[in-house]
Design goal:
single chain, alpha+beta, Triger factor/SurA peptide-binding fold, Chitinase A, domain 3, 4 domains, 4-stranded antiparallel sheet, 22 helices, 49% helix, 17% strand, disordered N terminus, disordered C terminus
């Protein structure tokens, strides 16, 4: 029963984190100026408190930290803070919709659901299964046990169902009228099974001189006003960075392999089971908690070297150490049926040996003492000179990890665009591959730039559209010539190149043409062998000839129709639900105060703000 309780809590945590809106999708308040009533957002007049946001963000961070077995980067914290915010906003919108629709849940509904409709996560719990199948008797016995009541499991299940049952009722109301007709199924089948291959000549806007088009200031202003959202851009920061890498030597690699060999010998001698060794030693903490279990499945689940070694193993045997980009693995296949394997592994990362790690850590400590979070920007340069660490510069873009010379430097971009000011020096950032410290040299805030700042860009977009319009007339003349001779002859007369696509459907990319555009549509409308009129897309003007087209097999469709209807009905229901949820967001009055809340807390605590998306 105690073992089963673990799965209950896992289920409750997963349900809490996932949320209805994500079905298809820090720190204590301390000295912060944020009060218990400060809202991080207001949704249709209903406040979401900053304390709620901090708490949910913390819970998500704690769960991710447990799963990853390491400290999270600021980029990862940023993602989880966004997830927590979206979850809280979604919960408010749903509660408001329940009230509007009069959706309620009774105690009897909760009790019935808890007893006879257990959550999928619990049904998959090994302790509640018999011969690999969920055992209702074991589940009922668990619910009736004193342990379930003592540990508050029944209360947590009640809370879960009180939240989930209204969601299910709303779901049924939203999607109950979804029906996929035979005609709609046939259209979908044709879109994915009709195919075509074309030859084409493309007329590109780059071929038109700038002198042939003019763009007025009035046109620029009108275009900017109409397309403002398209010019919204993230903040950009120029940063100076010093890094201290944890350099892995051949000796470190040899030490990791030797540890794997010794662990294999212990397992084979019987002094430790593979499962217990995985729990104690595996760097893959997610599978390690389950005895190294990677589940059951077919090929193409793992990197090539790992998979080759796994399929070469006899069930029950432990592999020699297998090297992959993640480190050394010991693999054990529990069972095999055809290409389906049930297997376990133990991952041992290749890390610096203790003596090398100590030297690296001491150097990082020295860097932190001199420059970390210093008020004087010159301390950054002083640290570089004193320790002989070269300084590199890069551009950090809000919402994207920083890379310098092809190397990923975590946390710096989130710090630089999350509330830091020009001249600020970061704390020392620590990750698996080393340490880093950064100075913010300049910052351009995100948002929609003023027209004067992007006037040239707006002018270029308008000019491109006008060039495409001019090319339509030129392409029309060419198409007439091609229709009276051949596409190849007309192209040769004007020194143009004829392109040839691969075979494509209405929904797949067409080489040279693009995807889901006017040219792809024309390929399924023109007669085979005919040269069509010019087709203008956002990128070019095309003159096409359909060389081959294959029609869908109606008999094959009829044979697959029942399965297809089931799949498409499920897909359209999901689509309907997503559209409904998005519409709730679109029509809602939402005041997002995340940036001001995070910056107020950071300033009060003299810490970097919690990283946020725009």
């Amino acid at each position: 029963m105690r073992a089963a309780t673990k799965w209950v809590w896992i289920f409750i945590a997963a349900a809490f984190v996932g949320g209805f809106l994500l079905m298809d999708t820090s720190g204590l308040m301390g000295r912060s100026a944020i009060t218990p009533t400060t809202p991080v957002a207001t949704v249709n007049g209903e406040d979401i408190l900053a304390t709620q946001w901090f708490n949910v963000s913390q819970q998500l961070e704690a769960e991710e930290t447990r799963n990853s077995g390491r400290t999270l980067t600021l980029e990862e914290r940023e993602r989880l803070a966004d997830q927590a915010y979206e979850q809280l906003v979604g919960e408010v919108l749903l509660r408001q919709e329940y009230r509007r629709r009069g959706i309620k849940v009774t105690n009897a509904e909760i009790e019935n659901a808890a007893r006879y409709n257990p959550p999928p996560q619990l049904m998959q719990s090994p302790e509640l299964q018999t011969e690999g199948q969920f055992d209702p008797v074991k589940y009922q016995r668990f619910l009736a046990s004193p342990l379930a009541r003592q540990q508050g499991v029944l209360v947590q299940l009640e809370s879960y169902y009180r939240s989930e049952i209204p969601k299910q009722k709303l779901f049924e109301q939203v999607v109950s009228d979804v029906y996929v007709s035979d005609e709609r199924l046939w259209t979908f089948w044709r879109d994915t099974h009709d195919s075509a291959q074309v030859s084409f000549v493309s007329f590109l806007p780059e071929s038109v001189p700038d002198s042939r088009v003019t763009v007025s200031d009035a046109e620029i202003r009108a275009f900017y006003d109409e397309h403002r959202k398209e010019f919204d851009r993230p903040a950009r920061a120029v940063v100076s960075v010093m890094t201290i890498p944890r350099r892995i030597t051949a000796a470190d690699t040899a030490a990791a392999r030797a540890k794997a060999v010794a662990l294999k010998q212990q397992i084979e001698s019987g002094s430790v089971t593979f499962e217990n060794a995985a729990r104690a030693e595996s760097a893959d903490t997610a599978s390690g908690a389950n005895g190294g279990d990677l589940g059951r499945g077919g090929r193409d689940r793992f990197v090539a070297d790992f998979e080759s070694a796994a399929y070469a193993l006899t069930p029950g045997r432990v592999s020699e150490p297998v090297l992959t980009p993640f480190g050394y693995h010991l693999i054990k296949v529990d069972s095999r049926k055809g290409d389906t394997l049930s297997l376990r592994h133990i991952l041992l990362r290749i890390e610096q040996r203790e003596e090398s790690a100590v030297l690296t850590d001491r150097r990082a400590d020295s860097l932190a003492r001199i420059a970390a979070a210093a008020d004087d920007p010159a301390k950054f340069d002083e640290a570089s000179r004193t320790l002989g660490i070269p300084v590199t510069r890069g551009t950090a873009i809000e919402g994207q990890p920083l890379t310098i010379a092809g190397a990923y430097v975590p946390s710096v971009a989130a710090w630089a665009t999350g509330g830091a000011s020009k001249g600020d020096i970061s704390d020392l950032f620590d990750w698996d591959e080393g340490y880093a410290i950064a100075r913010l040299d300049s910052l351009v805030e995100g948002g929609v730039p003023k027209l004067d700042d992007i006037k040239g860009e707006v002018r270029a977009r308008i000019a491109r559209g006008k060039k495409l319009d001019l090319l339509v007339a030129d392409a029309r003349t060419f198409a007439t010539a091609a229709a009276s001779s051949t596409l190849e002859q007309a192209a040769a007369a004007r020194s143009l190149q004829v392109g040839k696509s691969d075979v494509f459907t209405r929904t797949t990319p067409a080489q040279g043409l693009g995807r889901l555009n006017e040219a792809v549509g024309a390929a399924f409308a023109l007669p085979v062998g005919a040269v069509g009129a010019p087709v203008r897309t956002e990128d070019a003007v095309f003159v096409l000839r359909v060389d081959r087209r294959t029609q869908s097999d109606r008999a094959e469709f009829e044979a697959q129709k029942a399965t297809l209807r089931q799949q498409q009905t499920s897909a359209y229901r999901q689509q309907r639900l997503q559209e409904f949820i998005q519409n709730l967001r679109d029509v809602a009055d939402i005041d997002d105060n995340r940036k001001s809340v995070a910056r107020a807390q950071a300033q009060a605590a003299n810490l970097p703000a919690l990283p946020l998306a725009p």
